[in-house]
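User: Please predict structures.

Assistant: First:
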Amino acid sequence: MGGGNDLVDSNVVSNEDSGIESSYVGFVDSDDVIAKDYFRNLIYTLEINKVQISKSSDIEIFDTNNYNSKAFYLEQKKTKGKIHIIKKNNITKLEVWRCVFEYNLIKNLKFHKLLAEDIVFNFCAHALARKIAINKNARYFYRQRNGSIMKAGSNGNTKGSTMESFREIFYFLRDNNLLQTFDLPTAFIRPKLEYTSKKDEDFLEMKKNLKDLNIPKYIVQNNKILNAAFSANSAKEFIAKTSSLKEKFKQYFQFRISKKQNIVKFFGKVIYSNKRL
């Protein structure tokens, strides 16, 4: 996977294919580090709460060029954690690398060869589980590297990939009769404004791909993003129909000072802009 998860490939997660001989499965990016008691504490939380997923909320980001390795030997007391019920629209923070899964829950799920394959996988697992337990005493050390996506942000080269992720989740929800239970993750087709394509050809291609899915009409009618995608005739119209109040405000008023850029915008007009190298 993109971050270096080496436990399974893009096929079905199974004992036979992956060599797994355990009741539980956990993922760790190959360049990250976990505390000595990380899995012990997550499995304890999973078992005592009788759930199929336990998730760590104890994440420490460290710079690959400046860290103290002694921190990795941290040990904390086992805690029961807190139950979190998965609701219609709250499948969020879906990093697969900070979870432990009961094997039977995910044995038929796949890692597809596409952008954000771990998010697609984890969305499906959470939808099946319906509830999870969150542990605050299982430390996961996330390595931040120069040039990483987390540090640099998206470069915008995601055309088509996000649509594929949306398609896989739609098929999963449809095939498991969950379309009425969970909202479709429309952030894949309408991300933040800065990552949304302003090109009509990209919008029209997305619109065609959505039509090809034959999404039930009642789903489209009750979903603002999908409704806008089907009714709009241009990228500009689609963006106008789906912009949040924050995005609309930012189009007219902006005052930003950072290491990379200074910008002042008033009533939609940029009165000062200075990008730094």
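Second:
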Amino acid sequence: MEANKNIYLKPRVGSVLSNGWTVLWDNFITLFLILLVVWVVSIPFAVMESTDSHSFISTVLGTFSFLYFLFVYMPISVSADFLYVKAIRNNKLDVKEILDVFNNYLNVVLAVLLQVAIIGIGFVFFIIPGVIFACRLVFVPYLVLDKKLDPVKAVEESWRLSRGYGWRILWLYIVSFFLIIAGLIVLIFGAVIAFMWINAAFAAFYQAVLEEKDEYEIVNNLTENRNVSNETVDMVQGEELEKEEKNDDQGKNESTIE
């Protein structure tokens, strides 16, 4: 019987980095293609930003580059990040799914704007609040696409889910910084690998928190898993049924006591 290796992750920096590294290489071609799509989408933004900062044209292009970044690049980037969550769950990946973000487009744009605004305001007030907000709101983009939440609910849910994990998330940010530095030392290819590894690690952390808080519906997602046998699905369904029966018995006992 082949078990799902991505169930019951631990929200620890070492654990998510290890899992992210494994998932990265298991899905390297697809994830690399996703990265290429994001890179191609970023080209117009980079071109517009590279113009002479003292010319009138650059002012116009600067406005267009901001709008392009906000309404085109950012949603595509968020969608790419969520595909890493699917990879962590060992679901089937399709590069075309990066366009699924447009099914929930407005919520994604507004949620990220709200996230950036809150973090930005935090950094204005002596930096430390900004660091706290950055750690506590790190799940906002995932939640908008994963649970189809509106922007305010996504912020509230990210704050709730990240409670008790702030220091670990901060440590993951710090480790990620040094991974990028190490990747740059190995030139472009190393930086690409480091960037993909970091994305996978943060996606793994999000998934690990959901699993530790028992808020991930394993059975529903097992049916989408390309590597899980019917026996595994039946086993998990049986375990869930036993839990429900125990809860029902406990409820009856509590009713009797009352």
